[in-house]
Amino acid sequence: MQNHTIVLILIAVVATLSFGGHEAKAQSQGQSSQWKREWSRTDFSKSAVDFSDIMSGGPAKDGIPAIDDPQFMPVMSVQDIGEEEPVIVLAHNNVSKAYPLRILIWHEIANDVVGGMPVTITYCPLCNASIVFDRRLDGRVLDFGVSGKLRHSDMIMYDRQTESWWQQFSGLGIVGEMTGKKLKKIPSRVMPFSVFKKNYPDGVVLVPQNPSARRYGMTPYTGYDKSRRPFLYRGHYKGPVPALAYVVAVDQEAWPLSALREKQEIRHKGLILRWHEGMNSALDQSRIDRGRDVGFVTVQRQMSDGTLQDEVYDMTFAFAFMEFEPEGVIYMSAE
User: What angle do CA 207, 83, 320 make, to 5 degrees?
Assistant: First the structure.
């Protein structure tokens, strides 16, 4: 089982290189007919995207298993996470939880409830997109799984209630009954484990249900964030920085992480972006705790009364930001 995901990724690479053009053509000629055998409950008559933009990422539906019954341990009891390893942190109603990327890189989705709020914690390693969604919509609570499909290299999620497909980067329903619906993003932070431990000493940390089921603490994407081209990507990126350059994105605006690192702080229209040293890349060395220091960021908005409020942001790759925010702008200098 430990090598299962890696094998599937390698299969996907070969399939993409050998059959990418054929697959795109087949999809444009009625790919939904083939998908219906696996997705009998999905309404393919409703969609907001071109089916030819959707491709297999290798694993089948639920081949990357979402976490549906998350298990936690008090932060002060956790011993096996590196001090600078990245964790997604959500604090709500006096409840603070950390979701280590050493786990989410193998599962990509965790359905949970934090402080009474049903949420789904998501991580797409191909876009380095760490996004938390409120999974309440139209009077019901949705549960999400990994479809095994990608669009513009970004994970496509699905909800188990209607089996509609959702774009992880945007939270938009793109295929099925929920087409056009949008999930609400919840402010969260990606920070080093040591910072979570210091700031939230009463917090809890997601732990594997079966520690031997995956190579937790390792990444199957070694060296990815130093690559020249995104993995399983058929787009035509034309941004001002390399496709796999980290950017800090807030809605339709983004700043290169390198610029923020140099400035330490950028203020823009009430936003305050700050860079801090001391967090491993999850996409660099085979062991995440040995990844180079890319640092981490905080993004807050200054309110009219002078208080600071956490803002939804994403430290993602430039190509993903431009694909899903085509009208967006990457600022090359602080304003």
Answer: 75
Q: What are the tens digits of pLDDT across the range 228-286?
A: 999 999 999 999 999 999 999 999 999 999 999 999 999 999 999 999 999 999 999 99
Q: Chain-centre distance of CA 138, in angstroms?
A: 24
What HEC string does the chain produce?
Answer: CCCHHHHHHHHHHHHHHHHHHHHHHHHHCCHHHHHCCCCCCCCCCCECCCHHHEEECCCCCCCCCCECCCEEEEHHHCCCCCCCCEEEEEEECCEEEEEEHHHHHHHCEEEEEECCEEEEEEEECCCCEEEEEECEECCEECCEEEEEEEECCEEEEEECCCCCEEECCCCEEEECCCCCCECEEECCEEEEHHHHHHHCCCCEEEECCCCCCCCCCECCCCCHHHCCCCCCCCCCCCCCCCCCCEEEEECCEEEEHHHHHHHCEEEECCEEEEEECCCECCCCCCEHHHCCECCEEEEEEECCCCCEEECCCEEEEHHHHHHHCCCCEECCCCC
